[in-house]
Design goal:
single chain, 339 residues, alpha+beta, seven-stranded mixed sheet, 7 strands
């Protein structure tokens, strides 16, 4: 299915995108669109197929999401080489990784990277997405203000942690396509989880409603005071109103379809990318553009999917020759996960 998604995204980003923008129709490649809709249904709720015309109703929303993801990923800055030799030469590499050794460990510990090189023996490097959490913390340090150095100046130190490698490919174009698939499936997984949580929540609400009604019957039977019965009745009515609110829980298959279509029709509410332009010293201290301290410029992209915390994302290339030897890699992995 990944191969199909990559091909579908290629079709959507080509002539299909131009046609859709001009005519708002879907005829040029309806077969691919049909498959895309079926993929969405498989990944969210197969029960949607019970609704007549589900495919037609999802065509537009699916197209909007595919085109949005394609545009978002294509806006990401181009890849750059991450290696021991570029650690000191490229400020981006030095900013993102603690040391050359740390860089090697991040990629060598990734199973997908190793499998990619094993399956492509002629590939000299891979291109992949590296996601990190950017951390800013305050500290006192020395800063140049005007022509003088001042001590105990409050500064902002920027660092990057929790590195994860996703969607490796043998070239940048392949990595971008894999990233688009990864983002799409993450959104669909989030939709599916919301539907499951809604169903579980409804079951729990029904149990609680039954319990409250039973308590009210017993209170009435045993002559409980008016205040207690009024409180129980108030809780019952509040819970009934909650269960009737389809905005909180899609109670029917039809509402499930409406919810899925709404998410896909408004992808910007669930997927977003932001871009920052930072000026950092060689120690990772954030300075303003007018500062006289030696600094370099760092452009970063942040991606947010659903309610997850935004993550700094960069497309990078990593050479096969930088992989840690498997024996050394396995020894290092054992030290992280002792028996």
């Amino acid at each position: 299915m990944t191969a199909f998604l990559q091909e579908a995204l290629r079709r959507f980003s080509g002539d299909f995108a131009a046609w859709h923008k001009q005519t708002r129709s879907f005829q040029p490649d309806s077969g691919v669109l049909d498959q895309a809709v079926e993929h969405v249904v498989d990944k969210t709720s197969r029960r949607l197929r019970a609704i007549r015309g589900y495919r037609r109703r999802l065509e537009g929303p699916v197209t909007e999401t595919f085109l949005y993801i394609d545009n978002l990923v294509e806006r990401m800055p181009g890849s750059f080489l991450c290696s021991r030799s570029t650690f000191n030469a490229d400020p981006r590499v030095k900013a993102f990784f603690v040391s050359p050794r740390h860089l090697q460990e991040v990629f060598s510990l990734n199973r997908d990277v190793r499998e990619l090189f094993d399956e492509n023996p002629l590939a000299s490097e891979c291109c992949a997405l590296v996601c990190m959490r950017m951390e800013e913390r305050q500290k006192f340090g020395v800063a140049v203000v005007g022509d003088r150095a001042h001590r105990e100046v409050m500064q902002t130190m920027v660092s990057f942690k929790q590195h994860q490698v996703y969607s490796p490919g043998t070239c940048e174009a392949e990595a971008r396509q894999a990233l688009k698939c990864c983002i799409l499936d993450s959104v669909l997984a989030s939709i599916r989880q919301r539907l499951i949580e809604a169903k579980v929540g409804h079951i729990e609400n029904r149990k609680r409603l039954s319990m409250l009604r039973d308590r009210l019957r017993k209170a009435t039977r045993h002559g409980a005071d008016i205040e207690k019965k009024a409180d129980l009745q108030k809780q019952i009515e509040a819970l009934e109103n909650t269960m009737m609110d389809t905005g909180r829980r899609p109670p029917t298959i039809e509402d499930h379809l409406v919810f899925v279509a709404d998410v896909l029709r408004n992808p910007g509410q669930y997927i977003s990318a932001g871009f920052q332009h930072l000026h950092l010293t060689h120690m990772g201290i954030k300075v303003n553009q007018e500062s006289r301290e030696p600094a370099y410029e760092l452009d970063i992209a942040e991606i947010r999917i659903a309610t997850k915390e935004p993550r700094v994302a960069a497309l990078v290339r990593f050479p096969r020759g930088e992989l840690l030897p498997k024996t050394e890699f396995l020894s290092y992995a054992d030290s992280l996960f002792p028996a």
